[in-house]
FO synthase subunit 2 (Natronorubrum thiooxidans), 457 residues
Amino acid sequence: MERPVTEADLTFDHVPETDQSFENALTKARAGDRLTVDDAIELLTTGTEIGGIDSTRKEQVLEAADRRRADVVGEEVTFVANLNNNVTTACNVGCLFCNFKDAAHTFERDTEIQSAGFTKTPSESREIVADAVSRGVYEVTSVSGLHPAFALDDEHREILEAHPDPKAVNYKPPEAYEIDPGTYTDQISAMSVDGVHVHSMTPEEGYHARRGTDWSYEEVYSRLAAAGLDTVPGTAAEILVDEVRDVICPGKISTEGWLEAMEAAANVGLGLTATIMYGHVENEAHRAMHLKRVRDLQERVDGAITEFVPLSFVHQNTPLYEHDVVSGGASTDEDELMIAVSRLFLDNIDHIQSSWVKYGDEQGLKMLSCGADDFMGTILSEEITKRAGGEYGEYRSFADYVDLVTSIGRVPVERSTDYETRRVIDPDEPPFGPRLGPKSDGTPILTPEERAPPADD
Ligand SMILES: C[S@@+](CC[C@H](N)C(=O)[O-])C[C@H]1O[C@@H](n2cnc3c(N)ncnc32)[C@H](O)[C@@H]1O
Ligand SMILES: Nc1c(NC[C@H](O)[C@H](O)[C@H](O)CO)[nH]c(=O)[nH]c1=O
Ligand SMILES: N[C@@H](Cc1ccc(O)cc1)C(=O)O
Ligand code: SF4
């Protein structure tokens, strides 16, 4: 039997070695000069000539990033009133960092296996979103597994049904499954309740929505926009260097494919976010190259990327960890430097997000003094990190946000997905709840009882 890959076996073409010095890179960062990949490598490593991270140098990088954050966006800390409504966990792509997915065959009608995952029908999605909107929420984020029964729309389904080898295009008809997720456009229009902002269809999902056709990504994203899609989450980015993707997600779209899909979504007028999923097999050279690819993309899409979200790899239950390919995730030093260097390098993206899902409240707050200015959203439920073994829960109320943000002397501000609409929250004016949504009246999203239901006795 073939021995699985382990950390020691990995050799990459790109390694963190440069002709730059840490001091020069720091001087450039402090001056606000545009950084090169080598500069970013020096800052991320606190100097390639030394082993490990130097704590004095790290503090210098964090300080430069914090100062840049203050210059670019000031003292406001933003967050959004949103829910996550992921439609299905059925997925056969097999990314080795992912524990969100469940093998698609476990969802079939004729199987003995009880699937551990879920699929929602469009009407179930609508009900969940409608309930959240009635509570004041104004964004729904929806990211899903690549369910083989998904088609973009009825026309796409006809093409897939007529395909001579459906398996080759990862298609199985909805009748084969216990629950029919409908089409992507059905789901998007079902979730489009009362003008809620729909943030969905990652480049990987965009790829699935055109499989077996010669349609461009523009064609796919314009049909989705017509169904009610507003912005595209830039997940599936992972590390935008193919030698890393070959190890952690060989079944996924390439770096080029991801960039093509994102650019196409922007071309049809959709807003974008961008992410990096770091702290697994990659090194600092890969992280720096990733930042460069995102910064270049932002130039091409004319500023359509509203925020950059560093996602620290949650290792506990994942195949990468269980098969000893990695021995854990990023250290706290690495997390802080990732946020700081994102702020310093991405001089054309205004907002850097601190994910309390990945870092927890305490470290998440610390990131707001390392270059981050956005503190994510209320999300109501969470499945990706939880299933990977993350421990930081699923929901933050507006009151939680006010407490957390004021505890570090900053200003809590609710924002729309695109950051265009904002409302400063007065900490002396409770109760705290959303006011920017179609049905927001300033009352809390959940009552205290709903948040912590009384124990049955
Ligand atoms: C679970 S997928 C769902 C959407 C779609 N299937 C895709 O791949 O874009 C969304 C993102 O979650 C992130 N993710 C998955 N597992 C993770 C983990 N263990 N730790 C951190 N982020 C993770 C990855 O960045 C991934 O692109
Ligand atoms: N960082 C994470 C997010 N971020 C997305 C935000 O919640 C929001 O949708 C975006 O800022 C657009 O307004 N979502 C998660 O579920 N988990 C994260 O770790
Ligand atoms: N899917 C990501 C979160 C995410 C969603 C939307 C975004 O725009 C950015 C990040 C996760 O939980 O890992
Ligand atoms: S990251 Fe997305 S594409 Fe990859 S296995 Fe998980 S759900 Fe599927």
Q: What stands out?
A: The domain at 7-13+74-444 is CATH 3.20.20.70 (TIM Barrel). The chain is about 35% helix and 10% strand. The chain has two domains: 7-13+74-444, 22-70.
